[in-house]
């Protein structure tokens, strides 16, 4: 159920991070840096990816001065290979990835409705850098997080992916369509993945703060924000810690909002259970559960019956999954 979480309760399960490896993008400053420091002071190993190499290195040095362990790498989140290198750095340095926080993001980069003309006087394609960084790079990080987290066989691993949304994930910001669309998409992405992560032994959640005093707020917008309360960066960091460490089944898929000066408010994952959507959801969940069972069978076959049995099982699984995907596609077409 939805409920407030006090500042003290944000760290109720924080001891779980000791010895875990936390991978964070965009932790050279702001919310990412605060989260990295909070994890590190509780014994976690930190892996930072940021395009601001100097800032990332300063965060690493601050963590080490406090007795923690951290490493950083140059990472342009728009470059897929940079993200792969970051995950590989985590494995080479600490041998595992336990929590992933795709934090890197920017504000509205340009006026979406301002049409630029080419040399022939025709509209040019608008720049979508805000969406590329806030959504596309997060999709890439999500795919890699799923891969590397499922490879982690360490008992007690938190195995969590914590998205960073915004209050604009819930309520759009006027005249900021690209930012609002990208942050709305983060919550949609998180909710869509909730069950598939769950059947694979992983957890997913999103932290959605109000504006905080970080470098992401443009100077011009700060004028509009004058006199309005801002969310505490420390509290946002605490919400990320809570989302990473609370492994209760009923909080999987939750949104942790941080509204202005108020304490964190958790919104649980909910879905429509009636009508056609409810039926479709049940069928998809059954399909995912079946697929996971087949994957388990393949793994056991490799151990006890050799690779030939595993190959047969894998081919069977692929055919069944193709049939199920075809059926689901027809259901979607009929729904339209």
UniProtKB/TrEMBL annotation:
Transmembrane feature ranges: none
Keyword Lipid biosynthesis tagged: no
Keywords: Oxidoreductase
Keyword Oxidoreductase recorded: yes
Molecular function per GO: oxidoreductase activity, acting on the CH-OH group of donors, NAD or NADP as acceptor
Cited SUPFAM superfamilies: NAD(P)-binding Rossmann-fold domains
GO cellular component: cytoplasm
Assigned protein family: Belongs to the short-chain dehydrogenases/reductases (SDR) family.
The protein's name: NAD(P)-binding protein
């Amino acid at each position: 159920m939805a409920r407030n979480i006090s500042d003290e309760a944000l760290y109720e399960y924080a001891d779980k991070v000791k010895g875990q490896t936390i991978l964070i993008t965009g932790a050279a400053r702001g919310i990412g840096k605060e989260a990295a420091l909070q994890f590190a002071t509780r014994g976690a190993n930190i892996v930072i990816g940021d395009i601001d190499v100097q800032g990332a290195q300063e965060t690493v040095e601050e963590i080490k001065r406090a007795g923690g362990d951290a490493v950083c790498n140059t990472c342009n989140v728009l470059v897929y290979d940079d993200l792969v290198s970051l995950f590989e750095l985590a494995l080479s340095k600490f041998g595992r990835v336990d929590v992933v926080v795709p934090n890197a993001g920017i504000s509205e980069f340009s006026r979406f409705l301002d049409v630029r003309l080419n040399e022939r006087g025709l509209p040019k394609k608008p720049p979508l850098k805000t969406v590329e960084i806030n959504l596309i790079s997060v999709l890439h990080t999500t795919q890699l997080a799923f891969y590397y987290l499922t490879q982690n066989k360490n008992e007690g691993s938190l195995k969590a992916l914590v998205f960073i949304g915004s209050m604009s994930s819930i309520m759009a910001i006027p005249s900021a369509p690209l930012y609002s669309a990208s942050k709305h998409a983060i919550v949609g992405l998180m909710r869509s993945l909730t069950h598939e992560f769950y059947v694979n032994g992983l957890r997913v959640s999103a932290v959605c703060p109000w504006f905080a005093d970080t470098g992401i707020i443009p100077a011009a917008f700060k004028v509009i924000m004058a006199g309005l309360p801002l969310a505490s960066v420390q509290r946002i960091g605490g919400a990320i810690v809570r989302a990473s460490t609370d492994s209760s089944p009923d909080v999987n898929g939750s949104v942790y909002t941080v509204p202005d000066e108020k304490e964190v408010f958790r919104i649980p994952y909910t879905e429509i259970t009636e009508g056609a959507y409810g039926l479709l959801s049940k069928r998809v969940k059954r399909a995912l559960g079946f697929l996971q069972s087949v994957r388990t069978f393949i793994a056991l076959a490799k151990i006890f019956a050799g690779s030939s049995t595993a190959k047969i099982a894998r081919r069977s699984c692929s055919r069944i999954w193709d049939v199920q995907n075809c059926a689901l596609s027809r259901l979607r077409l009929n729904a339209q």
